[in-house]
């Protein structure tokens, strides 16, 4: 045999990339008045926690989305999936076809106020950028176009988001915090919770000022002081989430009775977040909440953790 071509296996083509991406909890969510464009100015202290989705991107003949995991009803598998939108946006930016098979393993509760869809979009951006060798593209710019929670899912850690939440400033954190998340049956629609917040404020004749960051909360984070952090946790959307889902009051109360240092609805809910004293206390509290039968499941996690990270391939 003569003239054999160069062995194709000397070219290391990337065949699959898997990215792990965290959920977020809002440690402070201050909501300003309704703006003329329908948005609200926010001060949003995001904190990434160790509840992860994984997104795998593989070359394919066309764009497809497969979703795996428990309780994934309501997650679109077509063009509307936020991970598919992210892949299309990146492909457009680099002038390529979005021919990729995306497989999403969901652990983050769906429509749970923990930004799971935004997390998947961030993970898809990172996975496809690696698969398509698009390292020169600023993913943070594309992330902001996809949604106001997507940039934080790329960044991770703890950060203050201002504007619609998408302008991020990292926050120093002096330790690891231990959390329990009580997952509810069914979700709450984020736009419906904002609308209920506006309705409740109007009905109460409440004058709403511009949102302000809580210095007590930022100091507690910097010192790694869980007790002070628990006292400073605040969510302006909580009254609206409780109005739409009154049973969450009992969940919050059960967590406080279990010794949580702080208890609040996560973002637009219905997931409830409890700050524990230690990893051991978080495990005990999660078990107690699960046994109380008020919630679909209770899981412990810690934060802060890094944003979307390649864990395999590439
Ligand atoms: P946030 O905290 O950012 O307001 P959320 O955690 O309450 O969001 P998501 O889990 O992000 O809610 O889902 C909101 C809706 O987005 C879902 O009901 C679903 O219809 C749609 N969606 C699109 N793509 C995804 C995805 N990859 N994962 C989950 N939901 C998705």
Automatic annotation (TrEMBL):
Domain GHMP kinase C-terminal residue range list: 217-292
One GO BP annotation of this record: terpenoid biosynthetic process
Keywords on record: ATP-binding, Isoprene biosynthesis, Kinase, Nucleotide-binding, Transferase
Domain called GHMP kinase N-terminal: residue spans: 81-157
Coiled-coil positions: none
Superkingdom per UniProt: Bacteria
SUPFAM superfamilies: GHMP Kinase, C-terminal domain, Ribosomal protein S5 domain 2-like
Enzyme class: transferase
Keyword Kinase listed: yes
Record's catalysed reaction(s): 4-CDP-2-C-methyl-D-erythritol + ATP = 4-CDP-2-C-methyl-D-erythritol 2-phosphate + ADP + H(+)
Molecular function GO terms recorded: 4-(cytidine 5'-diphospho)-2-C-methyl-D-erythritol kinase activity; ATP binding
EC number: 2.7.1.148
Positions contributing to ATP binding: 109-119
Pathway: Isoprenoid biosynthesis; isopentenyl diphosphate biosynthesis via DXP pathway; isopentenyl diphosphate from 1-deoxy-D-xylulose 5-phosphate: step 3/6
Function: Catalyzes the phosphorylation of the position 2 hydroxy group of 4-diphosphocytidyl-2C-methyl-D-erythritol.
Family: Belongs to the GHMP kinase family. IspE subfamily.
Protein name (database record): 4-diphosphocytidyl-2-C-methyl-D-erythritol kinase
Annotated organism of origin: Thermomonospora curvata (strain ATCC 19995 / DSM 43183 / JCM 3096 / KCTC 9072 / NBRC 15933 / NCIMB 10081 / Henssen B9)
